[in-house]
Amino acid sequence: MPVLFGKLKLHTQILVALILGALFGAVFHVDQTKLIISTPHESGVAEIELNNWSRIELTLGNQKQSFTTKETSKLLKWWNASSQTEREKSEFTYFEKGKTIPIHLGSVQDIRKESTLATSIKPLGTIFIRLLNLIAVPLVLASLIVGAASLGDIKRVARIGAKTLSYFLLTTALAISIGLVMANLVEPGKQVSEESRELLMAEYGGEVAAKVSPDLSIDIIDMIVKMVPTNPFSALAEGEMLQIVFFAVVGGVVLTFVREEKAKPVIQFFDGLSELMIEFVQLVMKIAPYAVFALIAATVSEFGFGIIQTLFWYVGTVLLGLAVHTFVVYPTLLKLFSDMSVTKFFRGIRPAQLVAFSTSSSAATLPVNFECCEKNLGVPKSITSFVLPLGATINMDGTALYQGVAAVFIAQVYGFDLNFTHQLTIVLTATLASIGTAPVPGVGIIMLVIVLKSINVPEEGIALILGVDRFLDMCRTVPNVTGDATGSVIMWATEQKIRNTR
Description:
Elements: H1 2-5, H2 10-27, E1 35-41, E2 44-50, E3 53-60, E4 63-68, H3 72-80, H4 84-88, E5 91-96, E6 103-106, E7 110-113, H5 117-120, H6 122-150, H7 154-186, H8 194-211, H9 220-227, H10 232-238, H11 241-255, H12 260-284, H13 288-303, H14 306-310, H15 312-337, H16 342-348, H17 350-359, H18 362-376, H19 381-394, H20 397-414, H21 420-435, H22 444-454, H23 466-501
Helix pairs in contact: 2-13, 2-17, 3-8, 6-11, 6-12, 6-13, 6-18, 6-19, 7-15, 7-20, 7-21, 7-23, 11-19, 15-20, 15-23, 16-18, 17-18, 17-23, 18-19, 18-23, 19-23, 20-21, 20-22, 20-23, 21-22
């Protein structure tokens, strides 16, 4: 790997790592039908490798279920959800291919998929994500306090804050609308066969049951109330991003009213903390190509490309919508509100986009986005320190677009006819839901439950798309991060115009 990378630029290194990781994962892929069974033995525990079976019968507690080779994931989910007591009294029987005589193993201690070289290196990628998340919370706190304080008078804070929020809400609503238009034109839900639908529902139905909560809904008043932390240290410890943003922005604004000799050391402390986190990023990014290689290799190895073939039309619709939003909407906004070259912009944020794709987390990518916007695009820290943390918290364009497509897709599979009112409800609900969404991987599914509830489409339909959610989560994080960077450039450009007219 070091020989391959040589003196390549960081974004090129990450791109090479993405390609090599996908190839590595494809070569060392996990055999979905191979299982490792641990059984009690006189000398301890014996491991049996099953790779030639056609059916498994498993008894846990008072329940007995039968699984075919296509239902391996369903078997593992049922096993992992069982208690230790149920496992101790389990009964495991399997049938070899082409044979009718069952082989009885009795009770088993563990059932798992095989581990390959590609999945065994995943911890390196996990450490990388944890390091970036470690940086994200103190960076958001410090940069927002300094950013709000450095904006000066309260009128400027209010002006930039209002423009930033308006921009985020506008782009989110546009993203959802694009998703809905694409889904209505392509009609991906009508391309799924009945056999594929039944298979996906059987495979992921249990996981959906764990995600769906009957109390899940949007309460705007409650959301606003919960933005105000009762204990800022608790909010920091638990990573409550909206509460951290509220505390930091209000704290930074209040600092402008404090006497300069008192406010200066506080601002200097948080400015120093922000610089510390940025330097921390420089150090962490040295392992980025290797971590990206490990993450992509493990993902491809574990999930493969087969599920994408089954949901080709759905995945294609989402990707087309994301591409339109990223390469049409954002450049158009840049042309309308700034003088920055579109080519320069996309070249400047490539490292952030690649890290976003690899980590599926806007929060984890935030430190890299800071560096790209300030060093590559020349946006001053007074702007980035305010806009980017806010964007990483409430701006989820890619996730919102995906929800628009997913909601229509699931409705089409079930035969629901969504009228204009239903689709307008999707726009409003997804926009509001995105504001309170944590910037971490996988949270889009929870938002989708809210959207489906709002239009009375069965939430169980999420099982249809869970298989490709990990891949699409990676893809939809790219426009999330790109939108934040676009916003910072636009805010900087509009502020310069205001100064020049005075």
